[in-house]
Amino acid sequence: MLHYTYLKSRRDSSLFAFIMIPALFPLAALGGATLAKGHWHYPLFLNPQYTPVQNATLCAQIATVVSVLFTVIPAFWTLRPEIATKSVTSFFFAARPMTVVASVIVFAFALNFTGWIGAITMIRILTGTLPPHVAFMTLKVAVGCLVTSALGTLLVTISSQPALLVGGYMACGLLIPWIQGSKSSLQVMGGGVGAAIVCTALAGFILERRCAT
Description:
By secondary structure, the protein is mainly alpha-helical. The chain has one domain (2-212). The chain has helices at 2-11, 14-36, 52-70, 72-77, 80-84, 97-127, 134-158, 165-181, 185-212. α7 runs parallel beside α9. The protein is elongated, with a radius of gyration of 18 Å.
């Protein structure tokens, strides 16, 4: 299933778009803000009054939001045509519905977490530094991407209508402040992984019921 999702996304070029948009966000943000001041200056900045560390922190916080939000899209879109036409049932000869769901979740998570790694690398290059506690921030992004990939997969099993993505982003509006405000890895892991497990279980159940009718 992972091989299928990889080949399909590579064929329609969405694979690179899903990775490159979060990864190149710091270049667009920092480059645009620096050039807006009328000259090219290194290290690049979002706010000229900030230190490089403060600029790196601000850019990383925004990149966190972009990565987590963007994960909903590949999770929802990757197998949307197959689910809409119920041709996804052909996969059930080789894999259980839960395996199909888990594959989509892992695929969407891997894409956007790779994009986050690219974003942090870009921030390091452009600002000359990294935000403090970058490891804990990376954990938050990993958990956030896991939850939103599970959420996006759950939504597409409920309905393949793109308008349902609005509900996903409304849920992200609650998820992101909670993740960013978490003070311990235990809090992040406990709540986030628990939510991801619930969404995954529901998505597997709904997909099986939907294709059985």
